[in-house]
Design brief:
heterotrimer, A mainly alpha, B alpha/beta, C alpha+beta, A: mainly alpha, Helicase, Ruva Protein, domain 3, C: alpha+beta, 4 domains, about 65% helix
Chain lengths: ~150, ~180, ~650
């Protein structure tokens, strides 16, 4: 697609008065964006840290940026925030005993729905078989049944 | 069980939870710091930049740490309560001027009164992050060993002070 | 005086609704035609009474009557007229009046289009709707009266929240409510059928068009809300899995299942019990949404001001309406027969599987939305459930739905043969897999999600082509165009709605996969490159709006040296509430949006700026629009045209002329 090609063409050339990114290191910014998009802005109603312009969110972004610069891993940064703000700060809830139902629930629903579906279809299939039984079949069945009753 | 009753049962459970939910406040978030040591800091004082105030200076006493700012309207609301508490002398209150201009903060205290023993300046908001502050005012009760025992989110009112803060302070002081 | 008339009209409407909810239903139970017939005049007069109330509130907004508390709280004399009128539903009380007004509109429509229904059925349908209306009117009159006076009157209103001062506000809530409330018709049909014990194919035939129309409105309403959030909130997101968004999405998912289940009940007489349950569920989820938005139990970006008394009222109402109907279901449904049988591989079974997956997806959204509340209620801590959770849970649940969507329309009713079916979709599968493998590479990046998106979109499109080709092959005579024209509209409607999903999937896939963003600081004259487009910042100037002042930035956009457009994002300060709003500037196109949003002023005239290049983002909403058009087309099919419309055709031509 053409914009990809244009991107390749343009990004090579330097521009006079090129705008500076808000952070100095693009690699850090990329990681910050990824991390911040899964973190909750605590003073907002319901917004990620990446999206919010609230001052407190800017402070936290600055803090996270510095932690990334200090080569802390994502998990270390998340632990740092959780130890101060609790699990509430994470938009991706951690997997632990209280959230088992949350994470397993959808797949339990899916599997449960599938089982219920299979049971229903099987029952319906019986109905079809009964409906499709020909006169011949019925005579044979009755014959078999009467034989059985004689044997017993 | 009758499978036709299943939807009604599920709905009943949900309604039960929603009813409990009505009594709760989703904005009230408990601090994970309660029961943990208060994060250390050493910051310049508001009234005298050359002096610092650090956590160690409060060891051995039960005290309140109040995050506030001159731009914060909730701080204005709770200010008379803090003044009364300071006057009663029951517990020392230390202030943390959060992300504020020095001049504004000094003028604010001049105008409304100063309930604080010492005010430290957290200009960058970094200590605020260490304490898990997300909006001023917030108030912490810290015991003799420097452990956080209680956190008040939002303005203090007389009822909270009388029913929660003071009994807790007395209990901690007796330890 | 005028507000008192409105208030009085609401009280009268409550009385009428009460009569409508009891007398005709009793009449239907004892077989009294005169009592049953009362339903129609009751429903119509209720409509006119609520219309009067609505008109009175509109008048108060029009006249800036700040002696009405609600007007003083949500409007302002400087507010432009169209926003003053949209402010009617700008907060809790007025939006509730809109809800009720739309409910009576649907009721009125039922009285007009139901002359072919048996009298008892009609009496029960309108009775159920009347009871729903009783709840809402009581709610308004007890704890949310929009006509409450403010004495002494305010000199000036507190103004509509600046976020809501947007064309989206004029259209989004009415559309959304048309959808939510429209499902009350299907709900009433289902309850009427349960009460009367006549769940037959005719019942499904009658309630099908109502459900589809409500579904179309809801689709458009959600799309409008999403588009509005996209350009108004200033961070370029179009769906956040916010509790309020989920509250509208859950009835949509359940409603989608209902539309398909009704098709089976209508054509094959199957799934009756399931269809009834879905009809109850869909409307219940609409009501639940109303509760979630207004009770304050969840934190959301666009919740209404909250009040525990109101929460308690809606919850009790919810418990009575939903609990009552589910109890009725548990009591009457076991006596409903199973309907026609079908094989494990058949169009019925595919539709049922699709329904099950849609409901599982609805359940997952419900679980994620309410889970923080569950934990909090059990005192197990506070958590946030956000987009990362929903994205990772929803994709695997919805993938089988989209797969079945392609194959369902190709399978025969009652019994289909797997090998034959596989043979028919052979090339569609081949094309889809090839697209999934190759297209992302052509576009420059291969990821599993991109590949999955293209796989599903091309699967839906290619199977639709297979379906059309087969349909044409079965027809004889006429040219290609003639044969296409002879295909029923409901068939075209289905294809279009499914095509809309494919368009939507392409939009989501492209945006998620290829959007680029730059967070930059720009001085006057600086340039930044995003997605191959060069943005030059030409400075800011101060401008003045009707009720705000703004700083307007000028961004010159060019590509490969060619000038394209100039964008003017704004940072507005609304005077009445002294609130700052970011107004993004967007250059919209078929294959991409360019999006500029002004951040904060920095030192020496520089600004922080967010620039986005969003490929195919408009396909997301375009897909929704196509879905809704498909629904409308399906409803216009002649099989739904009620008897009274066809009758004039039987009248001799001469008689019609005399009539004129």
């Amino acid at each position: 697609m053409n914009w990809v090609i244009v991107l390749l063409l343009v990004s090579g050339s330097a521009w006079a008065g090129e705008a500076r990114p808000m952070g100095d290191n693009p690699a850090i910014e990329a990681r910050l964006k990824q991390l911040a998009s899964e973190l909750r802005c605590l003073v907002c109603q319901n917004q990620t840290l990446a999206d919010s312009n609230a001052p407190q969110a800017e402070d936290l972004r600055r803090e996270v940026r510095e932690m990334i610069a200090q080569n802390m891993s994502d998990q270390e940064i998340i632990d740092f925030l959780v130890s101060r703000y609790g699990d509430f700060v994470l938009y991706r809830p951690p997997f632990k005993p209280t959230t088992v139902l949350l994470w397993a629930g959808p797949f339990v629903l899916m599997v449960g729905g599938g089982v219920a579906l299979a049971v229903t279809l099987r029952r319906r299939q019986h109905m079809i078989r009964e409906a499709m039984m020909t006169e011949d079949d019925r005579r044979r069945v009755e014959q078999l049944l009467s034989q059985r009753s004689k044997e017993s | 069980m009758n499978r036709f009753l299943l939807p009604l049962t599920i709905f009943g459970i949900i309604v039960g939870f929603l009813a409990v939910g009505l009594t709760l406040n989703p904005r009230e978030i408990p601090s994970p710091l309660i029961g943990k040591a208060a994060p250390a800091f050493s910051l310049p004082q508001l009234h005298d930049e050359s002096k610092t105030f650090s956590l160690d200076e409060t060891k051995g006493q039960v005290w309140l740490l109040n995050f506030w700012a001159s731009w914060c309207s909730g701080c204005r609301t709770e200010h008379p309560v803090l003044m009364d508490l300071a006057r009663s002398g029951e517990v020392p209150i230390y202030g943390m001027d959060y992300k504020d201009q020095r001049g504004d903060a000094l003028a604010w205290l001049d105008r409304w009164g100063n309930p604080y023993q010492v005010v430290a300046v957290d200009a960058s908001g970094r200590v605020g992050i260490d304490y898990g502050v997300y909006g001023v005012p917030e108030t912490y009760v810290i015991d003799k060993q420097g452990v956080i025992r209680y956190k008040q989110i939002g303005p203090l009112d007389e009822e909270t002070v009388a029913k929660k803060i003071l009994p807790l302070v007395k209990e901690l002081q007796a330890q | 005086m005028i507000p008192e008339i409105g208030h009085y009209a609401l009280i009268l409407a409550l009385c009428v609704a009460f009569v409508q909810g009891t007398v005709p239903v009793y009449g239907a139970a004892v077989g009294n035609p005169r009592l049953m017939a009362l339903a129609i005049p009751a429903a119509r007069s209720q409509f006119f009474l609520v219309l009067i109330a609505f008109g009175c509130l509109a008048y108060a907004f029009f006249m800036n009557d700040f002696s009405v508390l609600y007007v003083a709280a949500t409007s302002n004399s400087q507010l432009p007229l169209h926003y003053r009128l949209a402010a009617i539903w700008g907060a809790h009380e007025g939006s509730l009046l809109l809800w009720t007004f739309i409910l009576t509109m649907w009721m009125f429509a039922v009285t007009v289009f139901s002359s072919h229904l048996p009298a008892a059925m009609r009496a029960r349908i309108l009775g159920v709707m009347g009871l729903v209306s009783v709840g809402f009117l009581l709610f308004m009159l007890s704890v949310s009266n929009p006509f409450e006076r403010l004495i002494p009157a305010a000199v000036e209103g507190r103004d509509l929240n600046p976020l809501l001062q947007d064309p989206g506000m004029v259209l989004h809530p009415p559309m959304l409510y048309m959808g939510y409330v429209g499902f009350s018709v299907a709900f009433a049909f289902a309850l009427a059928a349960l009460l009367g014990g006549n769940l037959d194919a005719a019942w499904a035939r009658w309630s099908r068009p109502w459900t589809t129309v409500a579904w179309c409105f809801l689709t458009i309403g959600i799309a409008l809300g999403s588009g509005w959030a996209y350009y108004e909130l200033g961070w370029g997101g179009w769906w956040f899995w916010d509790p309020v968004e989920n509250a509208s999405f859950m009835p949509w998912l359940a409603g989608t299942a209902l539309v398909h289940s009704l098709a089976v009940t209508d054509k094959r007489g199957g799934f009756k019990v399931w269809t009834v349950l879905l009809a109850i569920m869909t409307f219940s989820l609409s009501l639940l949404g109303t509760f979630l938005v207004r009770s304050g139990v969840l934190t959301s970006v666009h919740a209404f001001a909250t009040d525990p008394k109101r929460g308690l009222f809606i919850l009790s109402f919810l418990a009575v309406v939903i609990g009552g109907s589910l109890a009725l279901y548990a009591w009457r449904a076991p006596r409903v027969g199973l309907g026609g049988g079908f094989a494990p591989v058949s169009r019925e079974s595919f539709l049922l599987a699709n329904n099950v997956m849609l409901i599982a997806a609805t359940g997952a959204v419900l679980l994620g939305t309410l889970y923080p509340l569950f934990l909090d209620a059990l005192d197990l801590g506070k958590i946030s459930v956000g987009p990362p959770y929903f994205d990772s849970v929803f994709v695997p649940l919805i993938t089988p739905v989209l797969f079945l969507m392609g194959i369902g329309p190709l399978a025969q009713w009652k019994k289909a043969e797997v090998p034959a079916l596989a043979k028919r979709v052979r090339w569609a599968a081949g094309v889809s897999v090839a697209t999934a493998l190759i297209l992302p590479l052509v576009l420059g990046e291969w990821t599993p999600l991109l590949s999955l998106g293209f796989l599903l979109a091309s699967w839906i499109v290619s199977t639709a082509i297979v379906s059309v080709r087969e349909q044409l092959a079965h027809m004889t005579g006429g040219g290609l165009i003639g044969r296409l024209g002879r295909l029923p509209r409901s068939y075209w409607g289905m294809l279009l709605a499914h095509g809309g999903i494919a368009i939507f999937v392409i939009g989501v896939t492209m945006v998620k996969g290829f959007e680029t963003e730059q967070d930059v600081r720009m001085n006057v004259g600086d340039t930044a490159v995003v997605g191959g487009y060069v943005f030059r910042f030409d400075g800011v100037q101060n401008v003045k709006g009707p009720n705000y002042t703004a700083v307007r930035g000028t961004f010159h956009v060019s590509r490969a040296g060619r000038d394209l457009t100039v964008l003017y994002p704004e940072k507005r300060r609304y005077l009445a509430q002294n609130q700052v709003m970011t107004e993004a500037a967007i250059d919209s196109g078929l294959v991409r949006d360019l999006y500029v949003s002004l951040g904060e002023p920095l030192e020496d005239g520089a600004w922080s700026v967010r620039l986005y290049h969003k490929p195919f983002v408009n396909w997301i909403w375009g897909g929704c629009l196509v879905m809704a058009v498909g629904g409308v087309l399906a409803v216009s099919d002649r099989r739904y045209r009620p008897a009274w419309r066809r009758e004039p055709q039987m009248v001799p031509a001469g008689a019609q002329l005399v009539g004129r």
